[in-house]
Specification:
The strands form 2 sheets. Strands 4, 5, 6, 7, 8, 10 and 11 form a 7-stranded mixed sheet that branches. Strands 1-2-3-9 form a 4-stranded mixed sheet, with no helix packed on it. It is built from 3 helices and 11 strands, in the order E-E-E-E-E-E-E-H-E-E-E-E-H-H. The longest helix has 30 residues. It is elongated and about 60 Å long. By secondary structure, it is of the alpha+beta class.
């Protein structure tokens, strides 16, 4: 990179114009940097997930999602997951399991999404919605979540990635638990 300059900034997004030398050709590249975030898939039971229904301005509709939010200054991804789960649902998780991280668009944006599966939920606190949030809670069977994913009803990419990652983890850990129990029963 030959040079980089910030061309726009606010608390959610910074835009940079980078000048690159690609085989002797100067290329101007627009790059965005967004705050990292955590997305949580809260398992209410072995077969149910706590979801949120949230109005989203850009698609002018209420969408089915899982809790998600930006990591605040000085927070770890797990601390943000714990905070966001409580703020958006009023629930606390006794067990928060990291199940992966990803980037939505590494061709233009720097941003990491962190995915957590939340277990052993306890309704402790009260919700604390942000000024742009209007959220309703809904407990959905995993079978229905899979149908919503397969038929394209769930549009939010962070929720889609988180649900697939957390469901994979959940299925693998359930299968491992079943094998361990079966082995114990054979003894």
């Amino acid at each position: 990179m030959e040079s980089s300059r910030e061309v726009y900034s606010n608390s959610y997004l910074k835009l940079y114009e980078d000048k690159l030398d690609l085989n002797g050709n100067e290329k101007v590249y627009l790059r965005g940097k967004r705050r990292d975030y955590s997305t949580i898939v809260p398992f209410v039971s072995q077969n149910e997930i706590l979801t949120i229904r949230s109005y989203r301005h850009l698609v002018d509709s209420v969408q089915i999602e899982v809790p998600s939010g930006y990591i605040e200054q000085g927070e770890s991804p797990e601390q943000a997951a714990i905070r966001e789960l409580e703020e958006e649902t009023g629930y606390e998780a006794k067990r928060m399991v990291p199940v992966g991280k990803y980037t939505l668009d590494y061709s233009m944006f720097e941003q990491t999404g962190n995915v957590f599966a939340a277990y052993d939920l306890v309704q402790e606190g009260k919700t604390n919605f942000g000024s742009m949030e209007k959220i309703e809670l809904a407990i959905k069977p995993i079978k229905e979540i899979k149908e919503l994913l397969f038929n394209g009803t769930i549009l939010n990419a962070a929720s889609i990635v988180a649900l697939y990652r957390a469901l994979d983890y959940h299925n693998r850990s359930s299968a491992e638990h079943k094998v361990a129990v079966d082995d114990d029963l054979k003894k």
